[in-house]
Amino acid sequence: MKALFALSILSLAFPAMAKSPVALDERLAIELIAQEPAIVTPTGVFADVRDNVWAIECNTHFPPKDYKGYPTDRIFVFSGYEQADAGAPTTRPGTAVAGGTGEGIDPKTGLAPGVQRTTFADGLMQAMSLTMTPAGKIYVVCRNEIVYFEDKNHDLKPDELDLGDGKKGDRKVLLRLDTKATYPHNGLNGATLSPDGEFLYFCLGLNTGFDYSVIGSDGSKISGGGEGGSVWRCTPAGGKVERIAIGFWNCHDLTFDAFGRLFAVDNDPDDIGPCRLLDIIEGGDYGWKFKNGRKGVHPFTSWNGELPGTLPMVAPTGEAPSGILAYESDNWPADYLGQVLVTSWGDHTIQRFELKEKGASFTSTPVNIIRGGDDFRPVGITQASDGSVFFTDWVDKSYTLHLKGKLWRIRAQAPTTQPAQKETGGSAAGSVAKRLRVDEVTKAPQSELIQLCSAPRREIRIAAGDSLAASGDTGLRELVKLYVVEKDRPLIDAYWSLKRRERAEGPQSLLRALMTELSPLPKISQPGDNVFADRIVRYPDVGNSSQSLRRLLTFLGQDSAAQRRDTLLGLCKVLDVTARSDPFLNAAAIHALSKNSILPEDALTRESAVLAPFYPLIARRNGSPEAVALLPKFLKSPDPAVRRVALQWIGEDRLVQFKDNLPDALKAGDVTRDLLATYLAAQEKLNTPLPEPGKPPAERSVSQFAVEFLLDEKNDAKLRKVALELVNPTDAKPSSKQLVALIEPMGLAAIQAIAWRDDPESQAALRAVAADAKRDIAERREAVLGLARSALASAETKSVLREILLGRGTRRVPAAEAKDPPTPITADKPNGVRGERNPANGIVDPAGKRRVPLQAATEADLRLDALKAMRGALDAADGKALVDELMSAATKKQPDGTAVLNEAEWAEQIMLAFKPTPEALSAADRKRLEPLLPQRSPLLWQVIGSGADRDSRPVGDPDAGRRVFALATGARCYVCHQFDGRGGAVGPDLSRVRSAMDDAKIVESIIEPSKEIAPLYVSSIIELKNGDTISGVGLNEAGAAYVAIADATGKRHRIKAEDIVSRREEKISVMPEGLVDTMSVQEFRDLLAYLRRL
C-alpha cells in the first residue's frame, strides 16, 4: 500500500478516471439502484433468495458533531428491481450500458424506477455486515457484537424472539466482543455461514491492540490482545466460540466458495503491502501481530509466508479491500463461474480473481472489472438469486459520515442462456424461460427435485438437495446416488445437503442411506465422514495430490486423538513426496499434530524429513509444559530454522526463564543475518516492558540493538561482522570513529557502512580506501560510492575521483592473473538475477584488442562509478577527454563482432555527469554522443516494467541497483526509504516491495508518485506564525506539544504546535517527479532488480 509513497493497482494504460464507475469488461453493465437520501454511508449488503437486497446504512461511524443523519444504524431492504433473466432488456432508466450515471433516479426518494425501500430494523451501532439463511435467520455484525434477527414469514419485519426469562424482543445478541477499543472498523467485521450450516464464521480486526474477550451465547469465552486480526467461528446459535486463524492486520470480510473453501480479504500494515486475498485454513498463521509493531518490518513479522509456519497470500488486492464474493451463477459470462470478486475502497475498483491451483492452495492475479473515480468507494458485495451482483458505495473518501451513499448492481449485458423450457434437470436444467424461485423448488415433486440437483444455478441445486434430503430415506438415497455419480458443483452441493440433514436429524438416517447405496462400506468412525473424505478429494476441481492431502488433513480432524496422530504420521511419508515446501500442507499437519499430546521428536524425524524442521512449531502450538520444556533443546539444534523458531517463541511470549539460554542459538551452528536479527529481537522483547494496552510497542529498529552487539568486543568477531550488516549507517550510532576502526578487521562490510556517511572523518577514510590501488576492487567501488557525498564540496575528493576516472588510480593486471571472461548475460537468466558482471560494461582495455579480463573489467567499472560520483563536478576538459575516449572505444569490436563496451551506458553516464553543469560539455561533444544514446520515453519505462523486452535486453543487476539506491548524486532513494535496514525512515520501508507489487507498478509509482498517495504518506503544508511554510510528510514521533515533519530532502523538522497557523493536506507526493531523469536506462533496470530482490 505504501511502497514508494504511491502504490496503485490500476493499469498504466487506462485513461483518466471516469466520474461515474464503468464496466471494464464490455460484457457487463453497471446500474444505479439507489442513492442518498434512500441510503447514506452504506456498509454491508446481502441478497436473499427472494430477490430482496438488504443493506446497512451506517450512521455511527465517526459522526461529525453537527451530523444531521439518523441517530443509529439501519437495515434497509430494497425490492422491485428488474430481474436479469434471459431475454430481459439490458438497459432501462437509471442505468447505462457501460457505466452507471444515475439517470432516472428520483431525486426526492433516491430510488430507481420500480424500486421500493423497506426499513427492517434500526437501533444498531457501528454495523459492518450481515448474512442470512434462506429460512430467514439474519446475522448482523456490529463492531462489538453479532445481533440476531428472524424473518421466517418473509414479511420484511423482525419476528418476535424468546430472549429467555420470560422476555420477548425483535433481536438478541448472539456474541459479544468485550474490549475498551472503540475504532469503528477494526473490531468485528465480516461474517458468513459455512455451506453445511454448522458454523457462523466471522473476522476480528486488529482492535488497535487492546485486550479483548469474545464471549458466546453459551458462555464460551476466548481472550486475547495484541496478536492482530483473526478469523473465528461459532455455532449459528452463538455458542462454541473458536479462533481458527491468526496473523491478519485488519481482516474485513470473508466468503466460502461452492467447494467449501474459505477466503478473506485483509488490509495491510503501515510499511509493507499489499493488501491480501487469503485462503483460510483452520490453524493458519498469516504472519502479522500487532505486538510486533504496526510497520510490519519486525523480524518476527511475515506478510507473504516468508517465515516458517506462516502462510502466503493467494494474490495482492487493491487498496482497502472491504468485501468479497465467490461468484456462482449462470447470469454472467461463463468464465466468471467460481471466480472471487473483491471490492477495493481505496483504489475505486472491483476486481476479479481466477483461482489457479498452486500446491494445496491457489494463486491469482487481480483484474479490474469495474472502475470509478475518487467518489467511488465500493464496500460490501453480494450475489442475487438472478446472478446479478449488488454492492454498496461509501462514495466519499472521508471516514467521517457525510450523508452520501449508493447501491449499485452489475449484470450481464446480454443473456448467457437462451429461452427454452422451464428450468428443470437434464439438458433443460441449463435453459430458462422462467427463473425458478427457491420457494417454488421446495414444492416440486421428487422426480423434478432429482433433475434440479444438476441445475446451473446454485441456489436451485441447494434448495432441491435440501428438499430431497428432507423427504425421508427415499430422498436421501436418491441424493447419495447423485453424490456418487455426479461431478464438480452438483457433487459438492449434494454433499452439503447430506451434511446439513445429518446435522438436523442426527447420523442414523444418513447412515442407513449410505449403507443401502454404498454397501459394503469401509470402516467409518463418524457416519459418512470417511466416505465423504474419500470422495471429496477426487472431484476434478480439487484433483491433485496436494489438494487431496489438504482435504484429508481437514476431515481427519473427526477421528480420535490417537487415530489422528497415527494417521498423520503415516501421511508424513506421502508428504515427503508431495509436499516438500508446500506451506498449506505443512500448516495443516502442524495444526493437526499440535492437538495431540506432544510427539517424540524422533518420531517426526523418522517419519518425515519435511515435518522435522517444523517440530518446534508443533510444540509451540501445543503449548503444554512438556512442549515449553523442549526450548533449550531447540536452541541448540544444528538447524538454523529450528533455532529461529525457538528464538521467536521465547521473544514473542516473553519467556524470561530462558533468557540465559538464548546465546546457545549463536553457538550451535552457522549464524545468518536473519538468525542474528531474530536473536537480537528476542533479547529486545525480554528486556523491555509490555506496551500499554492499545498502543503498539516502541519500534526500535534491528539496527539499534545490532549496534550494541557490534560494539561489544566480547562478542565473536564473525558474529560482530554479521551484526554490522544489520546496522543502519544513517543512524547516529555507531560513531564514525567507531566505524572507521572496523575497516581493517571487517573490510568490505565496514566500508559499505561508512559509505553512507558524509562527515569529514568518514570521507577521509573513504578517500584513503579509494586511492589505494592495492586494495580489493570491491572495497574501492564502495568507497567511490560514498565519495559521491563530498565530490562537489571537497577538492580532495575531486582529486581522488578524477585520478580514478582518468585511469591513473587503477592498476593493470599481470597476464598471469587474467581470467577468462565470464559467460555473457543471456535472456534465459531468471528475472532480476544477473549472474556474473558483464565485462562489456567498461571502457575498452588500452590495448583495444580483446575483451577485458574480469579483474580489469571490474577496474573499468570502478572508473564508471567515479564518473557517476562526479556528476556536477567535472569541467570542460574532462568532458572532451571522456567523449574522445568513448568515441575511440566505440570503433573497436570483439573478434565475434560484438562491442567491447556498453556504449549507450557510457554515453548516458557522461550526459548525466554534465546535467548539473551543461555548459561544461560542448555542443559538439553532445552531438557526438547523440547516436549512442537510447531513446527515452514514458513508453520505454512501461516496457521495462512489463518485462516485454527481457528477451532482447540484459536484465538488471541487483548489486548495481543497490548502488543506484544509495548514490548521493543520483535519485537519492536512500534519503526517504530503507532497504535491508539501510536508509531513511521518511517513506515506507522497501525491503519487501517485491511482495507488494510487480515491476509495472513499481515503475508507475516512480514515474507518477502523486497518482495515488497512501494516507500515511500524504504530505502537508504547514504555515507558521513567522510567515514560513514547511511542506512534508508527518512523522508519528513528536507528541501533543509538537508536530514532526520530514521534507523532500529527508530533513526532519520539529515544530511547536503553538507556532502553527494552519495545516492543509497536499495532493502532490513529497516524492519528487522526474526521478527517472537522474538515471540511465541500465541504472533503472538495475534499481528494479534490486527492489524486486527478496
UniProtKB/TrEMBL annotation:
Molecular function via GO: electron transfer activity; heme binding; metal ion binding
Keywords: Heme, Iron, Metal-binding, Signal
Record Gene3D superfamilies: Cytochrome c-like domain, TolB, C-terminal domain
Coiled coil feature spans: none
Phylogenetic lineage: Bacteria, Pseudomonadati, Planctomycetota, Phycisphaerae, Tepidisphaerales
Protein name from the UniProt record: C-type cytochrome
Superkingdom, taxonomy of origin: Bacteria
Cytochrome c domain location: 956-1094
Pfam families noted in UniProt: DUF7133
Signal peptide start and end residues: 1-18
